[in-house]
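Tokens in:
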């Protein structure tokens, strides 16, 4: 979650960006590049494509800088822009190669850091294995939702916009995913 100081800093960067300050763009790039890269890597393993898409998003932000202060959440704005660029690039590649898929058919590559969870929550390796096994049973959409909620700290409205779902669908899908994880996790623990 962003604190009030982060929000004020971002607002300052956006104001400076609107006034042609290249350093403001550089600050935004430094703050969000890793998060954008990690999110884009959930859709493709093509490192060059990811870097190109991120670069295009920042170029577009610079070209549209006169509207920068209308951006309410830079994190959400940039995540959405990168997702759209990556999916559009993948779609164009599929058209060129003849493998047609709908946008809903994209893979959300799941690689949650179970090791981080072990350190943060002092879980045993057995529990990490159970967690990994239960996470594997979630749908692609549930994986993406959990990533956006707990790793990118987006609110339900932002997730709804990013995943093209209604806000109620986000609540339902999140509740379903957490319930499923809880039930599967408990079942795995009792089966040992």
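Residues out:
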């Amino acid at each position: 979650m962003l604190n009030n100081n982060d929000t004020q800093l971002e607002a300052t960067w956006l104001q400076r960006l609107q006034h042609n300050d290249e350093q403001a763009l550089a600050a935004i790039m430094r703050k969000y590049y890793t998060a954008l890269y990690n999110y884009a890597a959930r859709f493709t393993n093509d490192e060059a494509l990811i870097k190109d898409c991120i670069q295009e998003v920042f170029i577009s932000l610079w070209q549209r800088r006169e509207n920068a202060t209308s951006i309410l959440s830079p994190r959400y704005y940039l995540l959405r822009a990168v997702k759209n660029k990556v999916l559009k690039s993948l779609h164009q590649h599929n058209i060129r190669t003849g493998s047609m898929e709908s946008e809903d058919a994209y893979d959300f590559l799941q690689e949650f850091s179970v090791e981080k969870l072990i350190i943060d929550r002092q879980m045993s390796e057995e529990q990490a294995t159970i967690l990994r096994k239960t996470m594997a049973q979630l749908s692609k959409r549930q994986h993406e939702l959990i990533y956006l909620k707990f790793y990118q700290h987006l609110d339900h409205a932002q997730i709804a916009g990013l995943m093209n779902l209604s806000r109620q669908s986000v609540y339902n899908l999140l509740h379903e995913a957490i319930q499923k994880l809880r039930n599967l996790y408990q079942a795995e623990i009792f089966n040992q």
